[in-house]
Design brief:
- This protein is about 90% helix and about 0% strand.
- By secondary structure, the protein is mainly alpha-helical.
- It has one domain.
- Helix 1 (about 5-30) runs antiparallel to helix 2 (about 35-74).
- The longest helix has about 40 residues, at about 35-74.
Length: about 70
């Protein structure tokens, strides 16, 4: 597996996070009550947190795989 594939996947996930934030902000301008706040805390915040952790883990994995690839190519 090429390291670039991991990096491009992480980039796509970052773009999805950005789009989610933008669309949720637009939604909140129309739907702003206790139910929307609960939905945000239960789903949106959790999804953004989990996706951020995934991006960080992908970066660590890409770095480790890059190092392995470099060492095996020597």
């Amino acid at each position: 597996m090429r390291v670039g594939n991991l990096v491009s996947g992480a980039g796509a996930l970052r773009q999805a996070q950005k789009l989610l934030r933008l669309r949720w902000a637009a939604t909140k301008s129309e739907w702003n009550d206790s139910v929307s706040q609960e939905f945000e805390e239960k789903y949106i915040d959790d999804l953004l947190q989990q996706s951020q952790q995934t991006i960080e883990q992908i970066a660590r994995l890409a770095q480790a795989l890059g190092k392995c690839y470099q060492e095996c190519s020597e």
